[in-house]
Every structure is written in C-alpha cells, then in structure tokens.
Amino acid sequence: AALIKAALAAGYLDASFVRSEIRVNPRRRRADIILILDTGRRYYFGDIRIDQQILDPSFIDVLVRIERGMPFDTEKLLELQLALNDSGMFSRVEVDVQRKAAENFHIPILVKTKPAKKWRFGTGLGFGTDTGPRLTLAVERRRINRRGHSILADSLLSGIEQSVGALYKIPVGNLVSDRLVFSGKVTWEDVADDGEARRITLGINRNEQWRKFQRQLYLRFEREDFTIGEDDEIVNYFIPGASLSRLKADNVLFPRRGYSWSADVRGAAALLVSDTSFIRAEATGRAAYPLGERARALFRLQAGGMSVEDFAELPTTERFYAG
Question: Can you give the pTM of this predicted structure?
Fold first, then answer.
C-alpha cells in the first residue's frame, strides 16, 4: 500500500502490481516477499483552471504554483487547496483531477470553489484575573473589491482596558501571506502604579513571506496622554520598526514537536516628531517537545532591552513591565 501511494503521489497513476506474493515456509520459519510494481507512464499537469468569480483572475493566479507540463504531484495540489482555503475568501475548495480528460498523459485540473460570505461577525466573553470580565466584538467585510481588499473592525471592553480599532488589509503578491495593512485604534487603559493612559494609534504595516521567514515592516504614529506615578504627560511618537519570525512544527494548531521565534526592533528620534529618542529590541522563543503519547513539555524564553533618552517621556506601550 505504501508503494502504491508513493507511485500515485509522484504521478504514476496507472501503477499496479504485476506480481505480489508472500511465500510462507512454516517449517523453516521463513517468508519470502515478491513484489513487482509496474508504474506505467508518468502523468503531467495539464491546464489548471480555478472556477471562481469573486476575485480578479490575474490576482488569484499568484497562488497557483503549478505549470502545465510539470510532473503530476498530489502534494502540489494539496498546497494549492490549502492556500485557497487560507485566503479566507472561500468557504469550500475542491480539487477535481480530470483524469478521463487527459491527453498525451497531461491531466487538466479544475478547482471548484464556493465563496465565503462577505460579512463575518464575532463575539467573545471571558474572565481573567488581570482583566476581570471582558467582552470582544468584531465585524469583518471579507471582500470589498475583486483585488481582495478587506476591512476588520473590533472592540474590547474589560475592567482595565477599552478599545475600538479597525484594519484595512490589501493583499500584495501572495494572497495568503503578503499584505499591506492600514490600522487605527483608540484605547483607554489602566496601567501600573494606579496610572491610566488614553492612546490614539495610526499605523501602516507590510507583512510578507521572506525566504523561510515572516517579515513585517511597519510605521506607527502614537499620541498618548498618560499618568504613571509622578509622570503626567502627553506625548507624540513616530515609530518605525521591523520584525522577523519563524515557525516550524509538526502541527500548527496543536504542536507536539516544534519551535517558533520572533524578533522585533523599533525606535524613535526626537528630531522626527517624537518627544524623546529611544530604541527597543525584544526577542521571544517557544518550543514544544513530546513526553510520551499523551503529554508534552512547553518552553518559553523572552528577553528585551532598550535605550531611552528621557524615560519619563516614554509612552506606556514601549515600557517593559514585570509580572
């Protein structure tokens, strides 16, 4: 069965055993296995057609990394199906291998899709010792145009924080991993030392796949009115930054073996709008290791540091807090 599966996955769709025998000699306690596999001709990809009407065809073709004439490979079909599912634009994706329509061992592929609903609503209710009761509300317009633009608005209500924000996302390049994101958020928050902060944040991010990493380049403007201890300030900041991350795991949703890490560097200069100069770096690592069949060990390491010209002028979002 493993040999047949490997042959089919590699494009030998007519593979079959010419001979498959297990000859058992009980007296000698011996078994001879004779397998002769006739793979037949190898098949290749024919035309790839995605049946969908909601996105510009030239735009969605970026996800198709299969070309006519390439050896038939079931893994590549699975990757295409997962990429279309992960785009969030479709509620169902089915790959139809039209073998009966093959010509000269080239098989046409038809990908059937069903569009996801344009609107998505979400709500959450919870309780935490740090936040008290909390309520989250969200609404998303998955498709604004045929270029895959979307908008998400959400809000948070809790004992220590209330916020309202919105994200406008524009796919650039890969529909799944590469996006230009415009964001805006207003936050009211209770912070350490019986302090409070009121914050307005505007930002632009570019998220993209870079080699084996996920890279984010961002620019953020922050205006914050905060009171912490003896510090009572209204500060403005123009903060550029970059982050890099990597994930490798046997299962993304519930990893038993794997690791992830991320690193972020950002800062501001007093000469460019900001009220003081600072640079801040932070790195986080996580790992999972299996312990038998029903348990796993989880590890986490976080480190950070900063250099700041005037700490009293530093906004609460850029400070490190223990606990």
Answer: 0.80
Phi-psi region of 15 (alpha: psi -120 to 50; beta: other; left: phi over 0): beta
Percent of the chain with pLDDT over 90: 70
Strand order in the sheet with 90-97: 44-51, 106-115, 90-97
Q: What pLDDT is attached to residue 136?
A: 96
Q: Which residues of 30-42 are buried (b: 16+ CB within 10 A; e: fewer)?
A: eeeeeeebebeee
C-alpha to C-alpha distance for 12 and 303, rounded to whole angstroms: 51
Separation between Cα atoms, residue 5 and residue 189, nearest integer Å: 57
* Rounded distance between C-alpha atoms, residue 144 and residue 307, angstroms: 43
Cα-based distances in Å from 245 to 124, 235, 262, 272, 283: 28, 30, 4, 28, 10
Cβ contact 196:227 at 8 Å: yes
Q: Tens digits of per-residue pLDDT, 155-209?
A: 999 988 999 999 999 988 777 778 999 999 999 998 876 789 999 999 999 999 8
Q: What is the pLDDT of residues 61-79, one digit of tens each?
A: 877 889 999 999 998 999 8
Q: Within 10 Å of residue 124's Cβ, how many Cβ atoms? A: 11
Cα dihedral 193→198→202→207 (10° resolution): 40
Q: Is the dihedral of CA 61, 65, 69, 71 positive or negative?
A: negative
Q: How would you class 314 by CB atoms within 10 Å of its CB: exposed for 0-12, middle for 13-18, buried for 19 or more?
A: buried
Res 267 pLDDT > 80: yes
The bridge status of strand 150-158 relative to strand 30-38 is unpaired
Which helix or strand (DSSP H or E) is residue 84 part of? Answer: helix 74-86
As beta bridge partners, residue 247 has 260
- Tokens in use for 203? 């930002």
Residues 80, 141 contacting (CB under 8 angstroms): no
